[in-house]
Structures are given as C-alpha cells and as structure tokens.
Design goal:
Elements: H1 4-11, E1 14-16, E2 23-25, E3 27-30, H2 39-52, E4 56-58, H3 66-78, E5 89-94, H4 104-115, E6 120-125, E7 130-131, E8 145-146, H5 150-162, E9 166-172, H6 176-185, E10 192-196, H7 204-212, E11 216-220, H8 239-248, H9 252-262, E12 266-269, H10 274-281, H11 290-297, H12 320-324
Parallel strand pairs: 3-4, 3-12, 4-5, 5-6, 6-9, 9-10, 10-11, 11-12
Antiparallel strand pairs: 1-2, 7-8
Helix pairs in contact: 2-3, 2-10, 3-4, 8-9
Length: 328
C-alpha cells in the first residue's frame, strides 16, 4: 500500500514558477488565524495536513505560525511522512515594518530561524505599504504608515533570491498598477501575486494582467472574508453556489476551490478541521460544467476585504481607490 507522500502528485497538480523554476502545488494550506491560535494546535493541524497529502504551506511573519510549521516539518521528516524538507513548498511574507531598504534580508533570516529552514520556496511582500520599523503589529497605528520605496525594497527581495534564502519572490495585495511598478523596475520579476479571489470577487482585470506578465495569481479568502462582511459570509451563503453544490453533491467550499483552480490560479484553503481539510483536497477528480461556470461568472461582485486597516490620513493611501487603484 502506498503511503501518503506517494499519493501527493495525483491529488495536487503543480505549476512551474517562471523566475525561480520551482514547482508550486496548486492547492496550498493557509495558516492565517486572527485572533492567534495556540502554537501546538497549529503544529498538530499542519502535521495532519501533511498526512492528508498537503505539500504547500503558507505563513507570514505576522501570523506567528512560522515556528509551529517548522516544528511540524521536523516531526513529519522524523516520522517518515515526507523524505525531506524538499518535499514541501513553504511561503512566508515580509511585514510592513520590515519593508524598508536594509531590513528585508534580516527579516527573512529571522523567518528562516523561526521555521528552522535554510531556505524557503517563496517570499512575498505582504502589503504594498511600509510602516515604522521595529514593531510587528496589526493593526498598524495610523500614524506609522509610510510610502514603500518599491524599487529599493524589491532590489532587496531580489538579493534574498540571489543568496539562495528563497527560491522565488513575489507580492501580495498588489493592484495591477502597483504590480506594474515592480515589473518595470525588476531584474528578477515577481513569480506570484497573492490576493483575495473567490466567486464573489473574481478579479478579472488583475487575473488577465498577471497572466499576460507571467505572474501566477494565488488566491486567499477563496471561501470568503467573513469578518469584513460584518459577521456574515457572502460567499458561503451565496444561493447560486449552494444550488450548484446541491446538484453536484459537493460542499460550497469544494465548488469555490474547484472554480478557482479551473481559473488557472493557485488556491489557498484554510481550515484546521480534519474533515474539511480532507474535503478541500477532494477537488481534482471532477469538474464544473460550462453552464455552472456561466452561473458563477455572472454572480454580482463585491470585494470582501477592503483593506480598511491600511487606509490612513498619515499614510500613502487615504482612500480605498488609492489602495486598490480603482480595482474595487
């Protein structure tokens, strides 16, 4: 009988990142949790995810999940669940307070120390804004925001890749316009732009821009951004999605994940519940019909997370239009 690591390729297709050449599994396991969850709980969830067949894990300095992920990786190797760290794809992110020339490399070195790895597979700029150095905090104080020096910060990201501390580099929460700033200045172009993406926020303009420029769009909040919707979850409660799920004998979550995968993006699923973790992996042996795709295509659009925590009279973005460059 095959073990879990032998089953992985059948359950998790990959894409090859353009600049780094690394293969990224197209279904990843997200570890963002606000409020923070217990480290042992995260470690157990990641270990369970590895047992189930997940090989792509997404973290960030801000999430405080780097250390438990590192512990889970070490345990997975010692238990023989994976042969080595090479079997996994690990993403982490640069927080705003470290998004300054000269601070990028030390921030990545600190993340590597937390995860107990020699390198990560993908390093992302978390948001297109900088903040007062020295404090890893969220929300950021309104008076602490500063404009990002895109050229200098990206040059430091490139240096991280050249030094072998990360195999690929990219961005997160960047509009087409802000991504174009990076592309215009880059010697090593970004491989990934990680953004909110789901049937209720399909990001068609940004998706087309990324595709045209060889940037893989990675989707977070594929099942919705419930906190920003005033406690309701518009995606999971969407009648069109419920109708499709009932007809196919699938969950709404599976419909969302499969839909995103069929759009050609990398998908992050976040659940620490074992049954849902397993269900989220079961999206690769069936597909949506043309009619179902048409129904999803015409769902009214609304951004779930407006990024209000990054709007400040003291910072570079005083309105949502400035933060997203009209992609609202």
């Amino acid at each position: 009988m095959k073990n879990q690591s032998d089953l992985t390729p059948a359950y998790n297709p990959v894409a090859v990142l353009k600049s780094g050449g690394r293969k990224i599994p197209l279904l990843g396991f997200g570890t963002a949790a606000f409020p923070k969850v217990d480290s042992e709980f995260v470690k157990a969830a990641v270990l369970e995810a590895i047992k189930l067949g997940y090989r792509h894990f997404d973290t960030a300095a801000l999430y405080y999940t780097e250390e438990p992920i590192g512990e889970a990786i070490a345990e997975a190797v010692s238990q023989g669940l994976i042969k080595s760290r090479e079997d996994l794809f690990i993403t982490t992110k640069l927080w705003c307070s470290d998004a300054h020339p000269g601070l990028v490399l030390p921030a990545l070195e600190n993340s590597l120390k937390n995860i107990k790895l020699d390198y990560i597979d993908l390093y992302l700029i978390h948001w297109p804004v900088s903040a007062k150095p020295g404090t890893l905090e969220f929300p950021i104080k309104k008076e602490d925001f500063t404009p990002m020096d895109f050229k200098a910060v990206w040059a430091d990201m490139e240096e991280c890749q050249r030094k072998g501390l990360t195999r690929s580099i990219g961005v997160s929460n960047f509009s087409s316009k802000k991504l174009s700033f990076i592309l215009a200045k880059a010697q090593i172009p970004p491989d990934v732009n990680q953004v909110e993406f789901n049937p209720l926020w399909q990001q068609k303009k940004l998706r087309e821009f990324c595709e045209a420029n060889g940037v893989l769009l990675t989707a977070y909040s594929v099942l919705g951004a419930s906190v920003s919707n005033g406690g309701s979850n518009k995606v999971m409660e969407c009648e069109q999605l419920k109708e499709i799920a009932r007809a196919k004998g699938k969950t709404v979550a599976q419909i969302c994940l499969r839909w995103a995968y069929e759009q050609g993006v990398c998908v992050l699923a976040k659940s620490f519940n074992k049954e849902r973790m397993k269900e989220n992996l079961e999206i690769f042996d069936w597909e949506l019909t043309e009619e179902e795709l048409r129904k999803i295509d015409v769902i009214p659009q609304s951004r779930g997370s407006l990024g209000e925590d990054y709007i400040s009279d003291h910072g570079p973005y005083q309105t949502f239009a400035e933060l997203w460059d009209g992609e609202l």
